[in-house]
Amino acid sequence: MHTIRVGDTVAAPGEKKRGTLQVPGNHDPDYNPKIIIVNGAKAGKTLVITGGVHGTEFASIEAVTRFANMLDPTEMSGSVIAIPVANVPQFRERTQFVCPVDGLNLNDSFPGKKDGSFTERLAYALFDVICLGEAYIDCHGGDINEDILGFVVAADSGNPALNNASLELAQCYNTGFIHYFPAEPGLSISAQKLLGIPSIMPEAGTPFPVTEESVLFHVEGLMNVLRYLEIIEGEVVRYQSFVSPERIKLYSSHDGVWESYVELNQRVEKDEPVGAVKNPFGDVLEVVKAPERGIIGMKRCYYSVKNGEMLVVLSTF
Ligand SMILES: [Zn+2]
User: Fold this and answer.
1) Model pLDDT for residues 179-235, shown as the tens digit of each residue
2) How far is the CA of 210 from the centre of ligand 1 (A)?
3) 290 in the same domain as 156
4) How far apart are CA 243 and CA 49, in angstroms?
5) Domain containing 47 — which CATH number?
6) CATH number, domain at 268?
7) What is the rounded average pLDDT of the residues 297-316?
8) Which of 182, 211, 242 is the last residue of a domain?
């Protein structure tokens, strides 16, 4: 039985405590993320969860908050440490991908630096919490230009046992497909390579509106992971999702208006049209075709588009 301590926040076995994670250095103290420690009455594994590493991916934030509130530490064997809004400045200002304080992408800044700019210091402070876990889940979703129905990224750290462990975490989510991303420094899931902790990034939702469906994708997956880690009792549901070998991003070659022809998670054949870019008169400037057979994993949700901006991400199979 052990007490969990993160800075000033201390939870004895059987306790749930709320507090603030102190990021080193000088900045607006409101930028320090909130933290919830749920310390089970009985010993077991520790799961660390972050939401809002991209602060506009709101379904992940709603899910982590709701999940932490659902947990009863007196019935748990093991613990959960949750940070619902990791990137507070981005959450407030709703900037796309980057933190408005220094223009850095937090999910390109791990493991961070103690004396770096704000985002680097934030990554450093988060990694200090992540290292307390036996598993790490970084909840994401579509950023403000994106919509995602739901998939999971498992970390590939080059170690077969750890890769299999992250795949098993990913298979706790009701997702059609899984990707492996290299666990290289930058991404949060580099924790798998740098700290030896199996790490995944579930992705679901779009910021406007936050749908119950995308929140439940995260919440139900997290609950299933808790059963898998034997932190709570119950039967684990294992989803036999396939691992997609490649993500292909399709970009616009024109300024104009984006019209999608496809739905999320729709399967398309090679050369099938997935959408068009039009000029302001409504004339088609380009028809965008799938370069390979695949699943529509992510879609642009803005009506307007600039030359070079992302339209669709295709996950091959
Ligand atoms: Zn993200």
Assistant:
1) 999 999 999 999 999 999 999 999 999 999 999 999 999 999 999 999 999 999 999
2) 15
3) no
4) 23
5) 3.40.630.10
6) 2.40.50.100
7) 97
8) 242
State the residue range of the domain holding 312: 244-316
What number is the average pLDDT over the span 27-47? 98
pLDDT at 263: 97
Does the pLDDT of residue 1 top 80, yes or no?
A: no
Determine the distance separating the centroid of ligand 1 and the alpha carbon of 287, expressed in angstroms.
28
Contact (Cβ atoms closer than 8 angstroms) between residue 4 and residue 81: yes
3-state helix, strand and coil shares in percent for the chain, rounded to the nearest 5: 25, 35, 40
**Both 195 and 84 in a single domain?**
yes
CA of 149 to the centre of ligand 1 (A): 14
Which pLDDT value is given to residue 255?
Answer: 98
> Is residue 199 located within the same domain as residue 277?
no
Say how many Å lie between the CA of residue 193 and the centre of ligand 1.
20
Ligand 1 mean position, distance from CA 281 (Å): 34
pLDDT at position 168 is 97
Decide which of 185, 215, 242 is a domain's last residue: 242
- Give the residue carrying structure tokens 């969990």: 4
Q: How many domains does the chain have?
A: 2
Task: Check whether residue 220 and residue 279 sit in a common domain.
Answer: no
How far does residue 203's CA lie from ligand 1's centre (Å)? 7
Instruction: Say how many Å lie between the CA of residue 108 and the centre of ligand 1.
Output: 10
Q: For the CA atoms of the chain, what is the radius of gyration?
A: 20
Write b or e for each residue in 261-295: b if 16 or more Cβ atoms lie within 10 A of its Cβ, otherwise e: ebebbeebeeeeebbbbbeeeeeeeeebebeeebb
Q: Report residue 91 as tokens.
A: 């959450």
Is the confidence at residue 107, as pLDDT, over 90?
yes
More confident residue, 27 or 1: 27
**13 and 54 belong to one structural domain:** yes
CA 110 to centroid of ligand 1, rounded, Å? 14
